[in-house]
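## retry 2 of 3
previous attempt timed out at serialization; input unchanged, resubmitting
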Amino acid sequence: MELAGKKSVFKGVSQEVIDAALKNIFGKKVDLKKGVEPNLYVATLAAITDAIDGGFSGVELGEENKNFIDELKASAKVFAAFKTHRQQNDIARELLDEAGKLKPFNKFVEDTKAVIGKYNKVWLRTEFDTAVIRARQAANFKKYQEDSDLFPNLKWLPSTSPHPREVHTKFYGLVLPQTDDFWRAHYPGNDWNCKCGITNTDQEVSPSIPKSGYTPAPGLDENPGITGEIFTKSHPYVTEAYPGAAKAVKSAIKGDKE
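## retry succeeded, writing output
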């Protein structure tokens, strides 16, 4: 899949942000249950927001879809807040030593490096890349809806990946109406780093849907062009959240709006 306009660049999370977050957690300046560490939240949200902007770069939506990008960005806030709540509590598990005593700050910092790297380098990079793809696919879906009087159907296109998923190859060339329920859960971008494509067409509808054993990844299990969610609520950050996460997320998002 090629993206129109400027290419999105993953900036990651700076060491300055990480240092500030660790000081807040160590100094108990953030309520781990009821709050969301602001530095990590803002940095995570910025990465996903940049990805959405990159996915929509060069795409002009009609008047009826003018608020759609805002919907995706609103869902990114929920995702970023849940991720931050999960991350801050995983980090906090390194505060105490085996005797239950508070570690020296330098030891705490050293012991959190693996957690920090996992959340802010490995996972965030994958989340960024997937958000770019899903935003682009959502933009395409909305454009295809606008042109549905001429091209009423959608066609699944082959992946550009050198190692495509076998469960997706069975959908290559599949043509179904845009209104078919299939497209809600089965859509390019519903797996991490999926590089399959989609196009609108007036070709005849396929006689049947191949059986593939395809199960969308948790957090990516719905078409963002329909739901307006860049990541869904089935993501492990949500389903496996620490106690208090839901209220903390609501508070963080409310604070964003004020």
